[in-house]
Amino acid sequence: MNDQASLSFDASAVSPTVVHDCPEWFVVNKPIGWHSVAARVTDGSATIQAWIAANYPAQCALPESGLVHRLDVSTSGCLLVAKSERSYEDLRENFSAGVGGWSIAKKYLALATPGLAQSGEFTLFFSSRHKGSAKVTVHEVGSRNERGVCRWKVLRASDPQAAAGDPTTFDLIEVELIGAGRRHQIRAGLSSLGHPLAGDLMYRGAPLNESCNHSFAALHAWKIVVTGIEVESAPPQWA
Predict the structure, then answer these.
(1) Backbone phi, then psi, for 114, in 5-degree steps?
(2) Around Cβ 4, how many Cβ atoms within 10 Å?
(3) What is the CA radius of gyration of the chain?
(4) Where are the beta strands (DSSP E) in the chain?
(5) Do residues 181 and 160 make contact, with C-beta atoms less than 8 angstroms apart?
(6) Would you say residue 110 lies in a domain?
(7) In-domain check, residue 238
(8) Are 61 and 173 in contact (CB under 8 A)?
(9) 119 is a domain residue
């Protein structure tokens, strides 16, 4: 399944919102079905970049309207936006800093195939299969610029008595992305461990009721912490 496939719903019917605003940056709550930035594959679909430009014209002077990072079209939640060139550069640098300094913490909610340890961590290496491929390949060794680190903990164990496709048939987990994020890091990484996300057919995940997440992978950018300020996007229905 390709994340760029035609949507079965009108993504633009749910607008982004600003969940935190301060002098140097703000955080946008991205709905599922919205692309982060405009590109060839978005084909005129709704993008957070265009929404920011339309609602905050001064942001047009910054690259990608000041977006410090991106989320997959299938992922909802917190997107960090810089308000000036200086804050854009500082936030971009610290977003990838990993541990130490005032590195930015990124925490996600996800539904994973049951059986993960109560807590754990992976360090894996992520590369594109070939030009234009929708998927990434996961390796146990690789170059530094392919390295991705995640920590997880199980917040709610699965219910073996729940009906197939119900969110409670999966483990609800919190995943912290350490350092620079790689494309599909959480999705491909957990799938390589044998615990793909609910609804993530691209990485062999079991189906999730469409009413929960419109057939997308169950992944939500829940919290972001910048210079000690924690910003949260309300958990989605499936969580």
Answers:
(1) -60, 155
(2) 15
(3) 17
(4) 17-21, 25-30, 76-82, 105-112, 119-128, 136-139, 147-156, 171-178, 219-226, 229-232
(5) no
(6) yes
(7) no
(8) no
(9) yes
Considering the domain architecture, whether residues 151 and 191 belong to the same structural domain is answered as yes
What does DSSP assign to residue 235? P
Distances (CA, A) of 167 to 7, 30, 94, 100, 181: 21, 21, 34, 36, 26
Q: On the CB side of 5, how many CA atoms lie within 13 Å of its CA?
A: 9
Same domain for 178 and 196? Answer: yes
CA angle 198, 152, 1 (to 5 degrees): 25
**Would you report the helix, strand and coil content of the chain in percent, each value rounded to 5?**
25, 30, 45
Structure tokens at 77: 């939640």
Q: What is the dihedral of CA 111, 117, 121, 123, to 10 degrees?
A: -90
pTM score over 0.85: yes
* Distance in angstroms (rounded) separating the CA atoms of residues 147 and 143: 7
Give yes or no: residues 88 and 131 share one domain.
Answer: no
**Single-letter amino acid, residue 2:** N
CATH of the domain at 32: 3.30.2350.10
Whole-angstrom Cα distance, residue 92 to residue 220? Answer: 21
pLDDT score, position 5 = 45
Q: What is the pLDDT of residues 85-105, one digit of tens each?
A: 999 999 998 887 654 445 789
Burial of 201 per CB tally in 10 Å (0-12, 13-18, 19+): middle
Quote the number of domains for the chain. Answer: 2
Domain coverage including residue 198: 105-230
In a domain, 205, yes or no: yes
Question: What confidence tens digit (pLDDT) does each residue in 192-237 have?
Answer: 999 999 999 999 999 998 778 777 899 999 999 998 899 999 999 9
